[in-house]
Amino acid sequence: MHNHDHSSSSKRIGWAFFLNLGFTVIEFIGGWLTNSTAIMADAVHDLGDSISIGLAWILGRLSNKDSNVEFTYGYRRLSLFGALINGLVLIIGSFWVLTKAIPKLLQPEMPVIEGMLGLAVFGVLVNGIAAYQLSQGKTLNEKVLNWHLLEDVLGWVAVLIVSIVLFFVDWPILDPALSIVFTLYILFNVGKNLWSTTRLFLQAAPDKALSESLHRCLSTLDEVRSVHHLHLWSLDGEHHVLTAHLVLQRALSVEQQIDLKMTIADRLSEFDLAHTTIELEFGEETCRDAKV
């Protein structure tokens, strides 16, 4: 099931990469023909997006490699690393767009309106298709990349609106004004996703409620006196890892320990964890990780 999900994710990101890269080339040509600095600026921004999506695609494919003696958990965290880089690139790119748009508030320029309108319609379609493809994904990588493309869609919607308005009124200042509004909106949302990705990258618990539920699930076992050293972290935002020490109420025979382990496995199955390590400790036993 996970392999199928990963394959689907890779295909979606691959489609988004080729669509975005192809349209970026068209943008550069169109920006030059229409003499529009706004379109040229967006072309540079899309080039950065293409690089980010391509990087995410490569890292995503590598993340599905099997574990080995060096990378004992496999390579899934490469996907998380890709999401982190993409978030940073998008924030840097957004600030770059702001540096180009803000000066235009003081000295707005009238572009070739017909060319703007044609490119805007094409831009909304191409980036909209790519964004729709990634919106079906569940990985953090796809969510961050989807904001890349959503930013482009909103940007082209702004260009479309401005180009229509400019057919009737001489207000070129609308172009940079709308670009600034949309960029600030994207910055806010990407900032939240980047914070979530950074927390997971630093091995914070992916979900506080999930961590509490796991602690409650294990501590309510009849044979368990207490639970400590419970650590929950995520490989890539989807595949979670749990480790915990359980102090037993009394000494158990080998058969009883096996039965307890089967009960624990049954209880934990509802949480769909990728990997679990549970250690049983007797009441008089000193925990070897007491200082950790």
Quick recap:
The protein has helices at 2-34, 37-62, 77-106, 113-135, 140-166, 174-201, 208-219, 254-268; strands at 224-234, 240-248, 275-281. It has 292 residues and is mostly helical.
How would you describe this structure to a colleague?
Helices cover about 65% and strands about 10% of the residues. The protein has a 3-stranded mixed sheet, covered by helices on one side. The protein is elongated and about 85 Å long. It is built from 8 helices and 3 strands; from the N terminus they run αααααααββαβ. The longest helix has about 35 residues. The chain is mostly helical and about 290 residues long.
How does the SSE layout of this entry go?
Elements: H1 2-34, H2 37-62, H3 77-106, H4 113-135, H5 140-166, H6 174-201, H7 208-219, E1 224-234, E2 240-248, H8 254-268, E3 275-281
Parallel strand pairs: 2-3
Antiparallel strand pairs: 1-2
